[in-house]
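Q: Here's a chain of 270 amino acids. Please give me its 3D structure as tokens.
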Amino acid sequence: MRENKKTAGASRRKTGRRHPLATVALIAIGLGVTGGAYAAVNTSTASAETQIAAQSTIEEGEKLFQANCATCHGMGAAGTDSGPSLIGVGAAAVDFQVGTGRMPMQMNGPQAEEKPVQFTDEQVKALANYVASLGPGPSIPEDHLTNGGGDASNGAELFRINCAMCHNVAGAGGALTEGKFAPALDTVTGVHIYEAMVTGPQNMPVFNDLNISPEDKRDIITYLQYVQDNRSPGGFELGSLGPVAEGLFIWIFGLGAIVALTVWITAKSN
């Protein structure tokens, strides 16, 4: 009888004993909770720091805007008689106009012309962030859309269909009406080409994603970068104005040279 009681007691003690892996499980759970809390705090802190940095950039951009742009566009960028409203134009429009030196304008004219940039890259981004904070609009494109990694042959076809009538098939630019012109594209960066397509500066139409997809825009940029890197293999380009200009050049100067040579030979023979 005593042996049965001892056996029952030993059995109860064995049943109440913790599993050997219980300690490991408790440690793992503790580490997981601690790590999760640490990550949550760090993420919250990083997010707060990012928001503070973004707000600081916007405030810097506002100061730059008020000092350099508000005369024409108004203190709140709502526009004046001298300049349009910038609310809703987006960061891309500011990055293009200011990043190419077109803004601030040097003088009134048919259109803003490219000139040396007046601000640093950080200041341009600050101005762009400030204007973007005033209303939604096109943003600065991502690198994979502007680095020239697309299909150049598709880009060439799209460029001929949509852009060549103003910019020339080789991107050499061309004259428009009332003293306006389509600028040459031989030195324009991929970012600014993309921004021009989505914002439509000067007389250029807007090519939104329904007109030309982001991938097709990338292909157009790839084609233009190919043209920039591979100049004419045939010698002097004559401004890349096309066969009409080249034919006129040959007609005037080529035949003129032949006539002059004929007159010279005839005069010598007499």
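Q: Can you summarize the key feature?
A: Confidence is low (pLDDT under 50) at residues 41-50.
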